Amino acid sequence: MTLAPFVRIVARGQGRARAMTMAEAQDAMALILNGEAAPEAVGALLMVMRLRGETAEEIAGFTAALRDHVDGQLPKADLDWPSYAAGRSRGAPLFLLAARLVGQAGYSVSMHGWNSHQSADASLRAALDLAGPNVTYTPLEKLSPRAFDLLKLRDTFGLRSCFNTVLRMWNPSRARASVQGVFHPSYRSLQAQAAALLGQDTLSIIKGGGGEFERHPSKDTVIFGLRDGQHITETAEPLLHDTRKLHAADKSVDLSALWDGQTHDAFATATITGTAALALWTLNAAPTPDAANKMACDLWDQRHQLESLSA
Q1: Range of the domain at 278
Q2: Quick check: 176 pLDDT over 90?
Q3: Residue 100 and residue 38: Cα distance in Å, rounded?
Q4: What are the φ/ψ torsions at residue 127 (nearest 5 degrees)?
Q5: Are residues 63 and 94 in the same domain?
Q6: Cα separation of 82 and 79, whole Å?
Q7: Tell me, what's the pLDDT at 249?
Q8: Rounded mean pLDDT of 280-292?
């Protein structure tokens, strides 16, 4: 079988083209991942979808195929945390320390990803020695070389494709809960709808810093997602009154010094605890975002004592 029938479905012409069903999208992506599709057909399919916008059914079908293609390679975790932001505007990966707080609360966190076009200061991989024992990170190129090749098509197209969204939806550790960051707000609802089609019932999605799951502490944070399979939309109020950008060029952060207590930065700390709070709320560790924020702040204040106990 070739990819041609699926290209015809999406590109037949005005009045005749349509979106793929979830089953069709799953079959199409299976062909692509198995190396059975011509490169020209892959490009045609992805760019037509890029032009008209993908549907929840298509994202769910592509994600289901990816899950089938790479199954059982990671141990099961409590929380799935994808990291696929790309761009030069990001600063230090404060969300890594947020994940570490979640880990100190006793939850296993599985991070996976690949990031491009970022400065050395923004490198998540360079900071992994700060992840803590309950947080693991798996590079995409190791987890699935074929998926990595598809993501790298951005360099060929000059545009992102819906595969970026699929990777955020992936959840390769089969975690019971997932947190996702997006750059474009419209994807929050799309990804929640796709997750529901996949049978996932616990999910939080925010417009995060550079597309990461990272909360701006001085802005309202609108959370889309699922709780017990039901769609939610919740607004977490600002934690600070500060007009600065999340990653201001003149406000570099030394993660190690911040964690060790050698430096103090109220804005960076609120970013960390606020992000951890949303992850803890997703895990049902606290009943509300406000209660989760208090829990995260306590974890931050007690971080060195908790490390001593775990050691």
Answers
A1: 82-310
A2: yes
A3: 42
A4: -105, 10
A5: no
A6: 10
A7: 67
A8: 97
